[in-house]
Design a protein that fits this description.
Layout: H1 9-16, E1 26-41, E2 47-49, E3 71-72, E4 75-76, H2 77-85, E5 90-93, E6 117-119, E7 125-127, H3 133-143, E8 146-151, H4 158-169, H5 175-182, E9 193-196, H6 209-220, E10 232-235, H7 242-254, E11 261-268, H8 285-312, E12 319-327, H9 346-361, E13 369-372, E14 382-385, E15 388-391, H10 393-400, E16 407-417, E17 419-422, E18 425-428, E19 430-436, E20 442-448, E21 455-462, E22 468-474, E23 494-499, E24 504-509, E25 513-519
Parallel strand pairs: 1-21, 2-5, 2-13, 5-8, 8-9, 9-10, 10-11, 11-12, 12-13
Antiparallel strand pairs: 1-16, 3-4, 6-7, 14-15, 16-19, 17-18, 19-20, 20-25, 21-24, 22-23, 22-25
């Protein structure tokens, strides 16, 4: 794989450059090689994740037919409209940790007759199962997204998982298919991806990778679907550094059939400590910097895992899907800790965009990622409070990057890159990615990672001429600027346009900003 022999743009810039004096504008120079096209940036890199957790589904998406909140068949009109405008390409459900205690039969049939369970993972609240298989696929069809279903390996059985897949995908006159029809769905559901378990190393069963690999081979043997309805099958991989490498190595060596990809999880914690993670708002500049340092570590972790896959799977058949990622802060004071509700600031938008640029760089195998999570949980796109709704800075980062969905990655040469020093760590002033869009235009994303310093970015084009750059820029006046229900438009992108001079561009990027432009 070509990209494995290169150190990422972010990390190489760290190694090559010297520190600037304090309060100096950063200087960056780069060349976009429009004649050096790489892998396709799969649209599903921009996938979402919705779990039965806190208000991520109930109130956040689903309010039921009898709610005073405007809805269509129980789905919030405002949230569905916002997700459609975001062009969400893929949704993962029902978990997460919840998946390995989810029994699919609890969520089908008459909602009034579905059993009420206890959500032991997230807050110990009652789960009435109003939102189940049919509701999930209806949501996906309303939004226009592909589907990713996570099967229950932890407390289920091979038969239960096989029957769920048959229930969803069978076009025959079988008892399960007819039960689906009786429940209101004649034609099969479109299951695009199916995972066997989740975090098997932790909440999914605390397994060893070799044991999980044997279970995967066993269970996958019985997961069958009609021709044309077979999903891509995903194995539950590792997280972090050492554990991630071990799981990727063992799974790619020992699972020899019915595996299209291995999953991977990585969360950004400002302190890198799970007991005290750091605040979502009201944080110091030092935690802005540590957040950037920690989120950029995923670059090295992906590169290391892909080296393992290159060795064990040189033909490149196995994908590497980062199906949980994002920022994770301390629970907001006064809220149920198990609901994982946190405010979302300009810092989160910068983190999201920096991750997008890293994923683009490894697009040959990283063909799907799913941020955690879509509504009201962790790094959410949308926050709700009863009938109120707001769009977060992370939502706008996703919206700005829509042109990168199914685009073609372009090589960028870093000619000069300043960086900021944070104790023993360093990070580049700017994260960058470029691609050829489906419309044939060149798109450029520039993320100023600095909390306080602006950057001047000089851009030269090779293989193309352009006269103007136009798009959007997202920034804010404070480190923790965010939208509230009383002031929902405080952090929102604005139109951005500059002209080329002698075929070259000079971008003035304010601190803590995301800029995405089309070069014409």
């Amino acid at each position: 794989m070509k990209s494995l022999k290169k150190i990422s743009l972010a990390l190489s810039s760290i190694l090559l450059c010297a520190a600037l004096p304090a309060n100096a504008e950063h200087q960056v120079s780069l060349t976009i090689n429009t004649d050096q096209q790489g892998a396709q940036i799969n649209k599903n890199i921009y996938g979402q994740f919705v779990e039965h957790l806190g208000r991520g589904i109930y109130e956040g998406i689903w309010v039921g037919n009898n709610s005073d909140i405007p809805n269509t068949n129980g789905f919030r009109n405002d949230v569905v409209t916002a997700l459609k405008e975001l062009k969400v390409p893929l949704m993962r459900w029902p978990g997460g940790c919840f998946a390995d205690e989810y029994h699919w039969r609890d969520g089908i049939g008459d909602p009034a007759k579905r059993p009420t369970k206890v959500n032991t993972h997230w807050g110990g609240v009652e789960e009435n199962n109003e939102f189940g298989t049919h509701e999930f696929f209806q949501l996906a069809e309303m939004v226009g997204s592909e589907t990713y279903v996570n099967g229950n390996l932890g407390t289920g059985t091979p038969r239960e998982m096989a029957e769920w897949l048959e229930y969803m995908t069978s076009d025959k006159n079988s008892t399960l298919a007819n039960e689906r029809r009786k429940n209101g769905r004649d034609k099969p559901f479109k299951v695009d991806y199916f995972a066997i378990g989740n975090e098997a190393w932790g909440c999914g069963g605390h397994m060893r990778p070799a044991y999980y690999a044997d279970l995967y081979m066993h269970w996958a043997t019985f997961l069958k679907a009609p021709k044309g309805h077979t999903p891509k099958f995903i194995a539950s991989g590792g997280s972090g550094n050492v554990r991630g490498l071990e799981w990727t190595d063992v799974l790619s060596k020992n699972i020899t059939r019915n595996m299209d990809a291995i999953s991977y999880h990585y969360y950004t914690l400002p302190t890198n400590k799970w007991d005290v993670k750091g605040k979502a708002i009201g944080f110091p500049e030092s935690e802005w910097n540590s957040t950037i340092v920690n989120t950029l570590k995923i670059d090295e972790f992906i590169a290391q895992n892909l080296e393992v896959l290159e060795k064990n799977d040189p033909k490149g058949k196995i994908g590497f899907y980062v199906d949980e990622w994002g920022t994770w802060y301390d629970a907001e004071p006064g809220r149920e800790p198990g609901f994982l509700y946190q405010q979302n600031t300009i810092r989160d938008a910068v983190v999201a965009a920096a991750n997008f640029n890293i994923f683009h760089h490894y697009a040959e195998r990283v063909r799907m990622t799913n941020i955690a999570q879509m509504v009201n949980v962790l790094q959410a796109m949308i926050l709700t409070d009863k009938e109120k709704m707001l769009l977060t800075p992370t939502y706008y980062a996703y919206q700005m990057y829509i042109p990168f969905q199914d685009s073609t990655h372009l090589t960028v040469d870093i000619n000069q890159m300043d960086y900021e020093k944070v104790g023993e760590d360093k990070f580049p002033a700017v994260s960058v990615s470029a691609a050829k869009g489906q419309d044939g235009k060149t798109y450029l994303a520039l993320v100023n990672l600095s909390a306080t310093e602006s950057s001047e970015v000089k851009v030269d084009l090779k293989g193309q001429t352009a006269n103007s750059a136009q798009g959007q820029q997202l920034t804010a006046n404070t480190l923790d600027a965010h939208n509230t229900f009383n002031k929902p438009n405080q952090v929102k992108p604005k139109a951005y346009k500059i002209k080329a001079k002698s075929g070259k561009f000079s971008f003035d990027l304010p601190a803590r900003s995301v800029t995405v432009v089309k070069l014409d």
